[in-house]
Amino acid sequence: MADKSGLERSFEQTLFGSRWLMAPMYLGLVVSLGMLTIVFCRELLYYAPQVLSMTADKAILVVLTLIDLTLAANLLVIVLFSGYENFVSKLDIDDGGDRPSWMGTVDFGGLKMKLIASIVAISAIHLLKQFMEIGKNGSPVQEVELKWMVVIHMVFVASGVLMAAMDWMTARSAKKY
């Protein structure tokens, strides 16, 4: 019996320690955040000199692109911090009072909801950008493509609503027991 208990304990410690295999993935997300920052800066530096000759529609498209990149970066930060704290280890850092209020409080369900909300927002921005291009010279989007983009966006919206409903039902049933 003692051998089985020792073997079982060793196995469980190995399983528990395996969470650290996720650490390189979170470092990869840090690199991805750096990549998004570079793309954001490149877009900003490209369009900033053109601001005086830019049409209002073009300015809105540029701003939407920058917002899109910012939302993607926000999503990365949320996944990075929440995922690390939920699945690997608590962040034990001296934040000097600068720690975001949501850190350490976003569980897997909250992370899931933030993820789908960000995806819906990013999808909506892409869709809005395409709608603004309709009727412009050499519009790159065909009618069929636009319809598929709307369908895909609506799938994201419906998925978000269904995920929220499932979380609500789960929380409601947990309160009964």
From TrEMBL:
<dbReference type="InterPro" id="IPR005134">
    <property type="entry name" value="UPF0114"/>
</dbReference>
<feature type="transmembrane region" description="Helical">
    <location>
        <begin position="60"/>
        <end position="81"/>
    </location>
</feature>
<feature type="transmembrane region" description="Helical">
    <location>
        <begin position="111"/>
        <end position="128"/>
    </location>
</feature>
<feature type="transmembrane region" description="Helical">
    <location>
        <begin position="20"/>
        <end position="40"/>
    </location>
</feature>
<keyword id="KW-1133">Transmembrane helix</keyword>
<keyword id="KW-0472">Membrane</keyword>
<dbReference type="GO" id="GO:0005886">
    <property type="term" value="C:plasma membrane"/>
</dbReference>
<dbReference type="InterPro" id="IPR020761">
    <property type="entry name" value="UPF0114_bac"/>
</dbReference>
<keyword id="KW-0812">Transmembrane</keyword>
<comment type="similarity">
    <text>Belongs to the UPF0114 family.</text>
</comment>
<dbReference type="Pfam" id="PF03350">
    <property type="entry name" value="UPF0114"/>
</dbReference>
<feature type="transmembrane region" description="Helical">
    <location>
        <begin position="148"/>
        <end position="169"/>
    </location>
</feature>
<protein>
    <recommendedName>
        <fullName>UPF0114 protein ATO10_05032</fullName>
    </recommendedName>
</protein>
<keyword id="KW-1003">Cell membrane</keyword>
